[in-house]
Design goal:
The complex is a heterodimer of chains A (204) and B (269). Chain A is mainly α and 204 residues long. Helices cover 41% and strands 4% of the residues of chain A. The longest helix of chain A is centred in the first third of the chain and has 26 residues, at 13-38. With 269 residues, chain B is of the alpha+beta class. Chain B is 23% helix and 10% strand. Chain B has helices at 13-21, 91-95, 122-126, 168-181, 193-197, 214-218, 244-249, 256-267, and strands spanning 2-4, 41-46, 56-61, 132-134, 161-163, 203-204, 224-225, 238-240. Classes of the chains: A mainly alpha (204), B alpha+beta (269). Chain A binds chain B through residues 67, 69-72, 120-122, 124, 126, 128-129, 132-133, 196, 198-201, 203-204, and chain B through 100-107, 109, 111, 113-116, 152-155, 165, 168-169, 172-173, 175-181.
C-alpha cells in the first residue's frame, strides 16, 4: 500500500526534458533506421552520363526514348539504339565502364538496366496520353534525370521489390512528384485537370 | 457486344481465346467448375423436348458490364442511355466495400482491380450472371510458362476476384495509337479476343451508341434480347436468336411490342 503511494510522486522538470530528449533521439533513430532497413540498394550494371549524351543528340530525350508508331513507349532504348553511334571496336571513352559496355555491344546483349520509375505490374501508364496529348515535358515526372552525369544506386523496397522512387525518396514518403509517383499523385492531377478517374484509366 | 446465338456452335473458341489473352491459368483440377475460372463461359440450353424435336442453343456469357439504372418502372432502366443521363448502378459495383470495381462513365466498362480487391466476394454474390470469379488457388503455372504471359494484363493472385474486362488492354493500346495518330478509336481498332476468335462470327463488338457501328443496328432487331432484363441491370451484352424458345428461355422474355413501348415512354421518340 505504501509503495503505491510513493509511486505517485510529482514529475520534476528534468523528467520532462529527459522524456522529450528521449523522444527526439528515438524518432531520429527511427527516421534513419526505417528506410535503411526497408530499402536495399543495387548498383546499375553500367554507369551512364545522361548530360553528355543529351549534348550529343539532336532531338533531346526523344532521340532515345520515343513513342512508337503504335502509340506505345519505347522506354529504355535497346542495345540496337546504342549501336547507332557506338561500335564494339572503337571505344569513345576509357576505363572499366566503357570496356564493360563494349562487351554488351560485342555480344549484342541487352543491358539489364534497373528502372527507377518502374511501376507495379497492375499499373498502365500511357506516355502517349501525357506527352503527345497533354504536352507534358519529360521533367515534369522524371525531374532532372536527363541532366545527371551518373546513375545513382537503384533503391528498392525489400518487401515489395518496387523502386523507392514510386513511394518517394523523402522522409516517410511525404514528398510529392516528381520524387513520388503513387496512385494519389496520379489521381490528384487527374481530378485537378478534369481527366477521367475511372480505375481502368491507369490499371490493367 | 451482340452475340448471335443462332450462329454460335458452342465450340468454346471464345473461352480459349479469352484465357490466353487475359492470363487465366489452368488449375490443378479444372473439373471443379465451382472453383475454376472462365471469364467467357459457354452455357448450354435445350428446348426440353425429346428426340426428334430436341434443339440446343449455346449462350456464351462474358461479363455483362451492366449499367444498372434507377429502380422503378422497367422502362427507366431498359435501354442504353446516354452515359451522363444518370448515375450508373451495376449490382457488383454498389456492393464493393473496397472500391475495387467501378463503372467508367466514358467507356461504360465495369472495371475490376484485383490488387485492390480484399476478396470478400460480395460482388460474386451480387452478380446475377455469375460473371465474377474468385481465385481460390494460386495458379500452378508450370515452370517457364509465366514467360509466355501477356505483359498487358496483370496476373491475379489467390484470394481476389476477377472477371471479363472486355479486353480493356486492347482499348488502352488502341487509344494510345489514336492519340499518336490524332484520330479516334475506330470500330476495328478495338475488338475483344473472343470476337476475333469466334469462327462463325457470332460475336459482334463495338460502341452501342455509335450509329456507325454494327452493334448499334443489331440491337434494334426484333430478335435481340438481354439476359434477366427484369432485373434492370441494363447490360451491354445483347443476344440475338430467331428461335422463340431461346428468347423465352433467356428468362424475362419481353415482346417486341413491350420493348418499343418502353423505349418510347422513356426517351420520348
Amino acid at each position: 500500500m505504501s509503495s503505491h503511494q510513493q509511486g505517485k510522486k510529482q514529475r520534476s522538470r528534468a523528467d520532462w526534458i529527459l522524456l522529450f530528449v528521449g523522444l527526439v533521439i528515438g524518432s531520429a533513430f527511427g527516421f534513419w533506421a526505417t528506410p535503411t532497413i526497408l530499402y536495399a540498394e543495387k548498383a546499375q550494371p553500367l554507369q551512364f552520363n545522361h548530360k553528355l549524351h543529351l549534348e550529343q543528340v539532336s532531338d533531346s530525350c526523344k532521340s532515345c526514348h520515343s513513342l512508337r508508331e503504335d502509340g506505345s513507349f519505347s522506354g529504355i532504348p535497346s542495345i540496337k539504339s546504342c549501336k547507332e553511334c557506338h561500335e564494339a571496336d572503337s571505344p569513345m571513352g576509357d576505363g572499366a565502364n566503357e570496356a564493360a559496355f563494349l562487351e554488351y555491344i560485342k555480344k549484342n546483349q541487352p543491358i539489364p538496366w534497373l528502372v527507377y520509375s518502374r511501376q507495379p505490374d497492375c499499373v498502365f501508364f500511357s506516355h502517349a496520353a501525357h506527352t503527345a496529348n497533354a504536352g507534358f515535358e519529360c521533367a515534369k515526372c522524371h525531374d532532372d534525370h536527363g541532366q545527371t552525369t551518373k546513375l545513382r544506386p537503384y533503391e528498392y523496397n525489400r518487401l515489395t521489390g518496387y523502386s523507392r522512387d514510386i513511394w518517394g525518396t523523402g522522409p516517410i514518403g511525404l514528398s510529392g512528384p516528381p520524387h513520388r509517383m503513387k496512385m494519389d499523385d496520379c489521381a490528384k492531377c487527374h481530378s485537378e485537370n478534369g481527366v477521367n478517374r475511372a480505375c481502368f484509366v491507369c490499371h490493367k | 457486344m451482340v452475340i448471335d446465338l443462332d450462329k454460335c456452335t458452342g465450340c468454346g473458341a471464345c473461352s480459349v481465346a479469352c484465357m490466353s489473352e487475359n492470363n487465366i491459368g489452368v488449375l490443378h483440377n479444372e473439373t471443379d467448375k465451382i472453383r475454376s475460372i472462365t471469364w467467357m463461359r459457354v452455357y448450354q440450353i435445350d428446348n426440353g423436348k425429346s428426340f426428334p424435336d430436341t434443339e440446343v442453343a449455346f449462350i456464351p456469357r462474358p461479363c455483362m458490364h451492366c449499367q444498372g439504372g434507377k429502380s422503378g418502372t422497367p422502362g427507366q432502366a431498359f435501354f442504353q442511355e446516354g452515359p451522363m443521363d444518370e448515375e450508373a448502378h451495376p449490382p457488383c459495383v454498389s456492393v464493393c466495400p473496397a472500391t475495387a470495381t467501378d463503372y467508367d462513365e466514358e467507356t461504360g466498362i465495369v472495371s475490376q482491380i484485383p490488387t485492390r480487391c480484399i476478396g470478400c466476394r460480395y460482388c460474386v454474390a451480387a452478380c446475377p450472371y455469375h460473371a465474377r470469379y474468385f481465385n481460390w488457388y494460386d495458379v500452378p503455372w508450370p515452370k517457364g510458362s509465366p514467360r509466355a504471359l501477356s505483359p498487358f494484363v496483370s496476373p491475379r493472385m489467390r484470394g481476389v476476384v476477377e472477371k471479363c474486362t472486355f479486353c480493356y488492354q486492347r482499348y488502352q493500346a488502341a487509344r494510345n495509337k489514336a492519340l499518336v495518330d490524332g484520330g479516334e478509336v475506330g470500330e476495328m481498332d478495338y475488338q475483344t479476343a473472343c470476337t476475333e476468335a469466334c469462327p462463325s462470327g457470332a460475336i459482334t463488338f463495338g460502341q452501342l451508341q455509335n450509329p456507325e457501328h454494327k452493334v448499334h443496328k443489331l440491337i434494334s432487331s426484333d430478335y435481340t434480347f438481354r439476359l434477366l432484363e427484369q432485373l434492370h441491370t441494363n447490360p451491354k451484352v445483347y443476344y440475338m436468336s430467331k428461335r422463340e424458345w431461346v428468347r423465352k428461355k433467356a428468362d424475362n422474355y419481353v415482346t417486341r411490342h413491350n420493348k418499343f413501348a418502353q423505349a418510347a415512354a422513356q426517351s420520348g421518340h
